[in-house]
Specification:
5-stranded antiparallel β-sheet; 4-stranded mixed β-sheet; alpha+beta; 15 helices
């Protein structure tokens, strides 16, 4: 399924389970002035610097590559892009509320969440092939082959998949069952004759996806962005009022950026640039550097209060001061500065509570997808691919 516009500006990130096993009432008391604890960051990779005898923390929102032997350290940003047919005010009169997580708005008819207008220009496939071609050691066909085999072999619907399809939506967004039956092709794949999601024990195969993946294995990402697959996607969009066009696909390019750097207690931090969530991570770590966290005791009431307040302050800055640098000026130096963090830490020490404002809405899913790989030579790759929510659109014949 194509990715939805409602997750377009979602920072590629994952949640850190800092409060696992703690009394939920205690956590709630520390977070009562916010709608949701929000830590947006990439995962940490440990990469040894043999020459300087240091350990570097490498964090990634999109895809970060560190090859010390080749003096390569870069990030590939493959965020989704708004289709060219979109306009800034096209949904202004449809806003019903803001998602509680702060990533997107709930619109009347859920046009930004499900269906043909809810689709971004996808960048993942382009980034995968670029990374393999430039930094990888495997043949592209061999990389794609397991996905082909999986699509052919299929999978058996297990209880957690069925629960995902049928659970009541309490987030204000479209129900997952509606996504599964959004298009005829999707209904044939995931639903029974009555249009209800297939029950546990049912086996699902996707031969159309296997065929699409074979084309990608043979012809590379170009077949998706400018070839047969792209042409079929564009025709489907045009026939059903979608915003995505073949020009959008052809024009998509990843962005190469230097990692955003910081330092935490003597360790160098390397993370992704805005609009990714790395700037928040550095800000939070800078704040926490002003506290003796070990002395507070892990998950003690004061520990939770301090960490929660650091998270909330970084979330406020993310909401009000961080965006896509192609469109807005982001005060990176200030937000990642030690002096600014010290000011925020002093407010926390005084017992001041931050408030994360939300227009309206409901909690965010805690799910994301992350891959971290380090080899014996210290080469490291860190990639976070947030799933967001599917638009529900399955183009007939493509899977």
């Amino acid at each position: 399924m194509a990715a939805s516009t409602s997750a377009l500006y979602r920072m590629l990130s994952s949640s850190m389970q800092l409060f696992q096993g703690v009394d939920p009432e205690l956590v709630a008391s520390c977070l009562q002035d916010t709608e949701r604890l929000d830590l947006k960051s990439g995962e940490l990779l440990l990469s040894p610097d043999k020459e300087n005898d240091k350990v570097y923390l490498i964090l990634s929102g999109s895809l970060q590559v560190h090859l010390p032997g080749k003096n390569i350290h870069t990030c590939i940003d493959f965020h989704g892009r708004v289709p060219g047919a979109a306009t800034p005010d096209m949904w202004a009169d449809l806003i019903e509320g803001e998602a509680r997580d702060g990533f997107g708005f709930i619109l009347r008819g859920k046009v930004n969440d499900i269906g043909y207008q809810a689709i971004t220009v996808p960048g993942s496939l382009r980034a995968y092939q670029e990374a393999i071609a430039e930094f990888g050691t495997m043949d592209w066909r061999d990389v794609v082959q397991p996905a082909i085999a999986q699509a052919e072999a299929g999978f058996t619907v297990r209880p957690h998949v069925y629960r995902f399809w049928t659970e009541q939506n309490d987030m204000g967004r479209a129900a997952n069952a509606d996504r599964a039956r959004c298009t005829p092709a999707g209904r044939r794949l995931y639903c029974d004759a009555d249009g209800e999601p297939l029950r546990p024990g049912t086996h699902i195969t996707n031969p159309d996806m296997a065929r699409s993946l074979r084309l990608i294995a043979e012809h590379g990402a170009d077949v998706f962005y400018s070839g047969e697959i792209g042409e079929r996607i564009a025709a489907d969009m045009a026939a059903n009022g979608g915003l995505l066009s073949l020009d959008d696909l052809r024009d998509y390019k990843t962005v190469r950026v230097e990692p955003l750097s910081g330092e935490y207690r003597g360790c160098r931090i390397a993370t992704n640039q805005p609009p990714g969530g790395g700037i928040m991570l550095i800000e939070m770590l800078n704040i926490l550097e002003n506290f003796d966290l070990a002395g507070l005791g892990h998950n003690s009431p004061e520990y939770i209060r301090v960490v929660s307040e650091a998270m909330k302050r970084a979330t406020v800055d993310k909401d009000t001061r961080v965006g896509d640098p192609a469109f807005v000026k982001v005060p990176i130096d200030e937000l990642t500065g030690k002096d600014y963090a010290a000011e925020l830490a002093q407010a926390i020490q005084r017992g001041e509570k931050a408030h994360v404002a939300r227009f309206e809405g409901t909690p965010e899913s805690a799910n994301t997808t992350h891959v971290s790989v380090i080899d014996a030579d210290g080469n490291a790759v860190s990639m976070t691919h947030s799933l967001g929510m599917p638009s529900g659109v399955v183009t007939d014949g493509l899977g």
